[in-house]
Design goal:
Helix content is about 40%, strand content about 10%. The protein is built from 15 helices and 11 strands. It has a domain of about 270 residues: Alpha-Beta Complex (Amidase signature (AS) enzymes), CATH 3.90.1300. The longest helix is centred in the C-terminal third of the chain and has 22 residues. Strand 2, helix 4 and strand 3 form a beta-alpha-beta unit. Strands 1-3-2-4-6-5-10-11-9-7-8 form an 11-stranded mixed β-sheet, with helices on both faces. Helix 9 crosses helix 11.
């Protein structure tokens, strides 16, 4: 059942009485037990609680009290969204045993919709990584090739959806952490406009960049889930106070009047896998055949995106992660003094990539270097935002690859941070500018690995992004392909 339909299909079948919420949840749990030993997507599973919540949903539905079309349906959440129902560890030793006294707003919204959280999903530690290899807890593997990475940092979320363990999941995207693993695992991933979805209860990595969003098997499922989690939240000072549209209503299949911008910086041959580029160009040709117009645009400052991003995000990480000191919660190393405890706790509790980013962030914020690095990176950020604004004067969406190539072998880049960081070269600028962007499957390379097409929209124009992505999927079946496990 879990692998037989999308979230929308399951919602229709449950509403029609063709299956029950309990049967859907039980099928997911069976699938997790069958394949997650190979994939390693889940950190925690709540089988008894999930089945009980599903039975309660069936009872409510029978009495005409369905909270939403999603009532009683399954979802998984990345391990950086706090809940009172299970531990939140951010895949780090330093949060061992931590259970939050409050709940993330997105989880509260899922509860309001009646969805059942099946469990928490693996990630790069504190969302810092592009391969899910930085988790301190376990290895997650790409379901299309168990010897390859699933991408990161939401690698567990993408792998679980690709492996048909769950129909949808939540991830977070700071520099591509929803879209890049979605591309590498052959699923749909949506990074909403910054502020469209509340960050309250999302464990902070880089507060001006982080955004929660859905991973799903189809664009229509992503639209359905976005509608459930989006909206203003007074608990989040960066939350946007704008009504939430009916995202499903814009999925008409029509591309009439849509203008697609083709950034030469994303569609050039420099550094991008040729097969990946070919699949993306095929996708653009299909969109043109469906009625979309195309125009070439340029994003000249995108060349500085990686440099600016890794100064901004590490500076914010240095500040945000200073709270993990062994005093209040989580791991505490045995020590003889307070200073010794701070040093040992952080040395033993954080992994190498997290330490690398804290050190770099502390350096760029230090006296004498702030202006030369952090301030300059923020100025470049403004220039990058200006690039997008000018590009959108002549088009509605920007189109390009999500990642410069398919999934790479486990261990290949773990000791080469620069190569790892460059896997996000097409995604980080979107976060710096706060824009919505969607990754959806657009084919496979010769080795059988999936390729992702990225659609980038204007601020708060998720409707156009979803409309174009859905139209593409109505004429292709790449998103229906499933790995053999």
């Amino acid at each position: 059942m879990s692998g037989e339909g999308t979230l929308g299909d399951l919602a229709r079948r449950v509403a029609a009485g063709e299956t029950s919420c309990r049967e859907v949840i039980a099928s997911c749990i069976d699938r997790i037990e069958a394949v997650d030993g190979e994939v390693g997507a889940f950190l925690q599973v709540r089988p008894e609680e999930a089945l009980r919540e599903a039975e309660e949903a069936d009872t409510d539905r029978a009495r005409g009290r369905a909270r939403s079309p999603l009532h009683g349906l399954p979802i998984g959440v990345k391990d950086n969204m706090v809940s009172r129902d299970f531990e939140t560890r951010c895949a780090s030793r330093i949060l061992a045993g931590y259970r939050s006294p409050y709940e993330a707003t997105v989880l509260g919204k899922l509860r309001e919709a009646g969805m059942v959280v099946v469990g928490s999903l693996n990630m790069d530690e504190f969302a810092m990584g592009s391969s899910c290899e930085n988790s301190a807890l376990q290895v997650t593997r790409n379901p299309w090739d168990l010897g390859r990475v699933p991408g990161g940092s939401s690698g567990g979320s993408a792998a679980a959806v690709a492996a048909r363990e769950i129909p949808v999941a939540l991830g977070s995207d700071t520099g591509g952490s929803i879209r890049q693993p979605a591309a590498l695992c052959g699923v749909v991933g949506l990074k909403p406009t910054y502020g469209r979805v509340s960050r309250y209860g999302l464990v902070a990595f880089a507060s001006s960049l982080d955004q929660i969003g859905p991973l799903a098997r189809s664009v229509s499922d992503a639209a359905l889930l976005l509608g459930a989690i989006a909206g203003h939240d007074p608990k989040d000072a960066t939350s946007i106070s704008r009504p939430v549209p009916d995202y499903g209503a814009v999925l008409t299949g029509s591309l009439e009047g849509v203008r697609l911008g083709l950034p030469k910086e994303m569609l050039g041959d420099d550094g991008t896998d040729p097969e990946t580029l070919e699949r993306v160009r095929d996708a653009v040709a299909l969109l043109e055949s469906l009625g979309a117009q195309t125009v070439e645009v340029t994003l000249p400052y995108s060349a500085y995106g990686i440099s600016a991003y890794y100064l901004v995000c590490t500076a914010e990480a240095s500040s945000n992660l200073s709270r993990y000191d062994g005093v209040k919660y989580g791991f505490r190393a045995p020590s003889d003094s307070l200073d010794d405890m701070y040093s040992k706790t952080r040395s033993q509790g954080f992994g190498p990539e997290v330490k690398r980013r804290i050190l770099l962030g502390t350096y760029v914020l230090s006296a004498g270097y702030y202006d030369a690095y952090y301030r300059k990176a923020q100025q470049v950020r403004s220039l990058i935002r200006g690039d997008f604004e000018r590009a959108f004067e002549s088009c509605d969406l920007l189109v390009g690859p999500t990642a410069p190539g398919p999934a790479w072998p486990l261990g290949e880049r773990i000791d080469d941070p620069l190569q790892m960081y460059l896997s996000d070269v097409f995604t980080v600028t979107v976060n710096l500018a706060g824009l919505p962007a969607l990754s959806l499957p657009c084919g496979f390379v010769g080795s059988g690995l999936p390729v992702g097409l990225q659609l980038i929209g204007r601020p708060l124009d998720e409707e156009t992004v979803l409309r174009v992505g859905d139209a593409y999927q109505r004429h292709t079946n790449w998103h229906e392909a499933a790995p053999e496990l």
